[in-house]
Amino acid sequence: MPGTPAVELRHVSLAFERPVLRDVALTVATGETVAVLGESGTGKSTLLKLVLGLLDPDAGEVRVHGDVVNTMKQADRLALRRGIGMVFQGAALFDSLTVHENVAFALREHLRLAEDEIATRVHEALRLVDLDPAQVADQLPAQLSGGMRKRVGVARAIAHRPALLLYDEPTAGLDPLTTETVVALIARLQRELRVTSLVVSHDVRAMLRLADRLALLHDGTFAFVGDAESMRASDEAYTRTFLAAA
Which of 161, 180, 215 is the last residue of a domain? Predict the structure, then answer.
């Protein structure tokens, strides 16, 4: 449906031993890159689990492309996830599988494709993340650098051509130069593939350069939502403290 946001959180609340999210609202427009920032334990990764339908809120609605995820049956949630690419913190590659097999994994699990089509998609995805299939396809994850493993994780997420990409701490554990490479890669994928990206991160400097808008989680709610220029100019107390500590 034209104009339907890619992701919407409507008055979402969730508690475990304590409140994690309190009446949270956020809209991610189609084609937009939004970064959710915050300290460790503030609920950033929980937001991704809500979008994927791995958790249900105690109150409110989580919508993906207009559909309410938290009222879906399990079969519908599985179908929803097939249209989402997930980039895990640390890449989360299968250690015993080659790069080719890692990138092909979801294609074999969820799509009925011939092996030559799978090979084409794997090579296409690797090239999109600036990896040479001839050099890396037969390597195991242990043979790759941290930055290369991260890029293979991105290749796996985009191989089935999703409309929505979710990133969990994409720059965690990377040196400054590799961080720049990953940030540039995410930005380029948004331009070339025209995907929507929702990124959770504690890396303020990287996200200020990458995101169209930023949302800062604090004490279960958003202390700030807006673009980088507005965030830098914000006089909200926690936002200023968070930026000063970055």
Answer: 161
Which phi and psi angles does 81 have, rounded to 5°? -65, -25
**Helix %, strand %, coil % of the chain (to 5):** 45, 25, 35
> Burial of 135 by CB count in 10 Å (0-12 exposed, 13-18 middle, 19+ buried)?
exposed
Cα–Cα distance for residue pair 103/148, rounded to 1 Å: 13
Cα–Cα distance list, 179 to 36, 146, 175, 201 (Å): 17, 10, 6, 12
pLDDT one-digit tens code per residue, 14-40: 999 899 999 999 999 999 999 999 988
Position 165, amino acid: L
CATH number at residue 199: 3.40.50.300
Low-confidence ranges of the chain (pLDDT < 50): 1
Alpha-helical regions (H) of 35-132? 44-51, 74-81, 99-110, 115-128
Q: Within a domain: residue 13?
A: yes
Which domain range does residue 155 map to?
Answer: 93-161
The reply to whether 88 falls in a domain is no
Note whether 200 and 44 are within 8 A (CB).
Answer: yes
Per-residue pLDDT at 3: 74
Cα–Cα distance measured from residue 201 to residue 150, given in angstroms and rounded to the nearest whole number: 15
The secondary structure of 150-199 as a DSSP string is: HHHHHHHHHTT--SEEEEESTTTT--HHHHHHHHHHHHHHHHHH--EEEE
